[in-house]
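Hey L., structure's done. Input below.
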Amino acid sequence: MIEILTPAELVRAGRTGALVADILQALKARSTVGTNLLDIDRWAQAMIVSAGAQSCYVDYSPSFGSGPFGHYICTAVNDAVLHGLPHDYALADGDLLTLDLAVILDGVAADSAISFLVGEARPPESVALIDATERALHAGIAAAGPGARIGDISAAIGAVLTAAGYPINTEFGGHGIGSTMHQDPHVSNTGRPGRGYKLRPGLLLALEPWAMVDTAELITDADGWTLRSATACRTAHSEHTIAITGDGAQILTLPSQPHS
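Output:
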């Protein structure tokens, strides 16, 4: 299913996106050395419920997962990159943490992910990896607009990741979003320009470049959810929900107030 949102629905989408971004920034600020992943999940739950929103994850049961997910946020550390199931783990200095959050507010969903380093340590390889996924995300957004094709976005993302030297996995990527979290069209993190679905105003997309340092192969944890790099190398993941407008693309998952 591909949804095209009305102007009124796009206004609501903007409110959902700001909520997601605000929660992620608040959680980032609280994710310090010694913070437990289960505490991050509890904090996310409290903020979602307080806002009158609903988690997209608690009852999430796709074919590839061992569902339902049962938690409010994905927390992936170091070699984990996608669908990180919160568990009893205390963050250490220099850990690379990815927080991925999707909620529904007033009938419209938004989805975003951030990767960052915990504490004071700044391993250069991790800094470069996070930077590459963020640059790939903004390249994909810049390629989006009315009349563009999904392949234009995929090619722009893939060009940045490839130039940075990272292999690209095509099993998981971006997606349409609207009244539900995951919709068509699929947005691969590499592709050919000029191919695929033509973008129209009112379409929402969640673009999510992610990369692993030296492999494109994923393995699944015993928890049935957490996806890790097959070589135990570090990973990063950056995601925004965008709306296609009459003259480009608008990022919906930006904080309502500036954050440091």
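The chain has four helices and 14 strands. Residues 7-251 form a domain with the Creatine Amidinohydrolase fold (CATH 3.90.230.10).

-- N.
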